[in-house]
Amino acid sequence: MIKGIINYSHYLLETAVEKGDTVIDATCGNGHDTLFLSKLVGETGHVFGFDIQEQAVINTQNRLTKNRLTNTDIIQDSHSNFIHHIPVDKLTRLGGAIFNLGYLPGSDKSIITRSESTILAIEGILSHLKQNGLVVLVIYHGHEGGTEEKEQLMRYTRLLDQKMFHVLYYGFINQKNDPPFILAIQKRN
Ligand SMILES: C[S@@+](CC[C@H](N)C(=O)[O-])C[C@H]1O[C@@H](n2cnc3c(N)ncnc32)[C@H](O)[C@@H]1O
Fold first, then answer.
1. How far is CA 114 from CA 6, 31, 36, 44, in A?
2. Nearest residue (CA) to ligand 1, atom 15
């Protein structure tokens, strides 16, 4: 079966990330991706999760506690400030990151990810990523402000040097109502 968007985003990370790696959940929300990443990197790895909303940080922390996972730091700050929160020894093992863009389901729909900070964060993460490391963007764009972010990200990723990065597009082109899609960026050898 063709994998759905969330399953495929996790599948891609499974192929690239190794046990012991450092990974970033750039938009924790309710912590589903953080939980997945925490299990993926194992006890020797570490997840740094970011969200600007206090409620998202609480929800994510609760989910991790319920699952007794302790290899995580959940930080209430913009992903564009990630560099200030990750110690150098962990940064050198950066194997992957996920951005689940848009707004927090069941919350204030006016608090959305924005292209400026998203691209700033991606750029910083790409410069620290290990070879073969992967950044996955899950792009929801049906909400107000979503089209602008989608277009900026398409423009930015199309211009990434193909000698340095593979950029993959994955999406369902016959679905109605602005379905989400994936852009995945892999750092080449
Ligand atoms: C689609 S939700 C993420 C869903 C999440 N991955 C999950 O599993 O529940 C997007 C999240 O991005 C957060 N966000 C918006 N701007 C942000 C920023 N600059 N830095 C970090 N998080 C941000 C929002 O607060 C929201 O919780």
1. 21, 20, 24, 33
2. 113
Q: What is the pLDDT of residue 189?
A: 83
Q: In what order do the strands lie in the sheet with 46-51?
A: 72-76, 46-51, 22-25, 94-100, 134-139, 181-187, 165-170
Instruction: Tell me which residue has its CA closest to atom 16 in ligand 1.
Output: 113
Residue 118: CB within 6 Å of ligand 1?
no
Q: Is the CB of 104 under 6 A from ligand 1?
A: yes
pLDDT of residue 56: 97
- Say if CB 187 and CB 165 are below 8 A apart: yes
- Which atom of ligand 1 is the closest one to the Cα of 33? 8
Q: Which of 160, 99, 165, 162 is nearest to 132 (CA)?
A: 165
Mean pLDDT per 10-residue run, the chain (189 residues)?
Answer: 98 98 98 98 98 97 97 98 98 98 93 98 98 98 96 98 98 97 96
CATH 1.10.760.10 fits 5-187, yes or no: no
**Pairing outcome for strands 46-51 and 181-187:** unpaired
Q: Could you tell me the residue ranges of all domains in the chain?
A: 5-187
